[in-house]
Amino acid sequence: MSNNELLRTEKIGKLLFKFSLPAIVGMLVNALYNVVDRMYIGWLGPLAMTGIGLSLPIMTLLMGLSMLVGIGSGSRISIRLGQNRKDDAEHILGNAVVLLILIMAGAMILGLTFKTPLLYLFGASEATIGFADEYLTVILIGAIFQGLGFGLTGVMRSEGSPKNAMYTMLIGAITNIVLDPVFIFAFHLGIRGAAIATIISQFVTTCLVLYHFRYGKSNLKLHRKNFKLDKNIIISILSIGMSPFFMQVAASIVTVVSNNALKANGGDIAIGAMTVINAIAIFFLMPIFGLNQGTQPIVGYNYGAKQFDRVKKALKLAIIAGTCFSTTGFLMTQFLTVPLIKIFNSDPELIAVATKGMRIFLVMLPVIGFQIISANYFQAVGKAPKAIFLSLLRQVIVLIPLLIILPQIYSLDGVWYAGPVADFSASLVTGIFLFNEMRHLDEPQV
């Protein structure tokens, strides 16, 4: 049975498991190598960890550009396959490859040109600028590999190859995990070595993805004729990809605002503590992102095929699973706080700051699974304006004002309080949007 037939006829529970498990495993491994990366860097000292935190806004922006094209094209491809328009799907794929190369090359040039003033804007001090600059320079040089590797892995899932996408991510992640200690310690390259290991792993991922679409057993193939950019295709990709892109841009802005609030109220150590908190949080959120990636082709295909009962069932099961993941993360971050922090650094001051911060900042984790899955639904069915609004709601409309206002009242605690207030508010509004959407699902507007 072909992947298209499976998407149309297979039981939703079984289908969700088949598509989501590889993505979840891949994302967990991706999270693991980020944890290992931060762990090794943490051994270089708390200020090295702060250097990573200062680099995060630009690294997040690079991820956002990858998602702009990767998720936008993946969503469109899923819908076109559901409409039995394979040639159109391959045209989208070809345009996506060229678009990723051009966008990431532009980001690399701009980033290398302005990185030093940007790092000071992000909260760097004379004690931390060296760590941040060393790491970020290498990451920017390899930006094209990140774009192609991450962006096209998502397309692999959308065109019906979730296992191959998982294996690709696994190989890239294992490469990074193996090379980290070699470059950091054996070659004595320190924080620059961690960045070099990351870029090499992204290069490996890119080679595997391009091989899959050119020579592998892909449902879609890369053809030179489809590399010619088409204005309508570009607009269709960007209109959907804008939602996750704006979410990443928002995350980048939040990091800048947060870093400056942390520096003003807690110094360099507070920035390092937030870097640890984010590294731990992302490990528990990655399975939800993987679940999203597995759900998207199911929802997108069946929405395009007008099988709305299957769309509803897939969404319901995904929300239940996502809530289970986020609740597990909540329990671990509340009751295993110190052991989790010590994985990254054993500095007593950093542990004290991060312990209090994590318990407050992540207290609303149980509702995040619902919010992420529900916002992704609107993206999967091509309703870009709603998807963009819900993506920006937590990280711009609510969180940024809170990060500015609350520290004025509560000092460093105000930074921690901002997280749960924003999480709860965004989840409540998303629930209202989703309830209204389900009532009118039989009247799609594409």
From TrEMBL:
Sequence intervals crossing the membrane: 15-36, 48-71, 92-115, 135-155, 167-187, 193-213, 233-257, 269-293, 314-337, 357-375, 387-410, 416-435
Localization per Swiss-Prot or TrEMBL: Cell membrane
Species this protein is from: Fusibacter bizertensis
Highest taxon listed in the record's lineage: Bacteria
Lineage: Bacteria, Bacillati, Bacillota, Clostridia, Eubacteriales
Protein keywords: Antibiotic resistance, Cell membrane, Membrane, Transmembrane, Transmembrane helix, Transport
InterPro entries membership: MATE_fam (IPR002528), MATE_MepA-like (IPR045070), MATE_MepA_subfamily (IPR051327), MdtK-like (IPR048279)
Family affiliation: Belongs to the multi antimicrobial extrusion (MATE) (TC 2.A.66.1) family. MepA subfamily.
Pfam families assigned to the protein according to its UniProt record, in alphabetical order: MatE
PANTHER family named among the record's database cross-references: MULTIDRUG EXPORT PROTEIN MEPA, SPORULATION PROTEIN YKVU
NCBIfam families in the cross-refs: matE
Membrane topology per record: Multi-pass membrane protein
Keyword Membrane: yes
Chief location: membrane
The protein's name in its UniProt record: Multidrug export protein MepA
